[in-house]
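[Q] Does anyone have a clean structure-token version of this?
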Amino acid sequence: MTLEIDLSPLKWTKNVNHPDTNIYWAYQHDQEHDQVRYPFLVPEFNLHWRKEQVENAKKPNKGDLILLRQRTKVTHLVKFLDDHAEFTENGDYSIYRRVQLLWMAQRPWDSAPHQNDVFGFEVELQGGKAIELDHITDLAEHFTTLTAFQEHIAQKLGLGK
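[A] Here you go.
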């Protein structure tokens, strides 16, 4: 069975890492570090930014989709549920947006799709800011439109019709 998700709102990507270097994956499902919770039928969680990235955290619109990358692997596709950034006393990562999980790579994540394979070119996007797909030069060189890229992503992640 193929999961069908409308990827027309897919406009962003973000590299994420857990602030504790002893924890290998951020936003994981396990007994010890369960950051993705199931308060509703579809899980939601807080997607964090560094405290100095408040303007970047505000950029995505409610309903936009973002691909999350960790350690060169594409691990999540999530949807923004709010239109503003929230603040917490979470040290360096005190800014967050509420997101809903639409797709997550199967475990083990070491075998998750590699970002270069998913994107169709060598991805050299570092840092933890949300990056607009329209602003990625290599994407424009490999795909004629954002829609063509979204169709490519649907195929790579098994989200197409």
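[Q] Thanks! Anything notable?
[A] Strands lie at 10-15, 44-49, 65-70, 73-80, 86-87, 95-104, 130-132.
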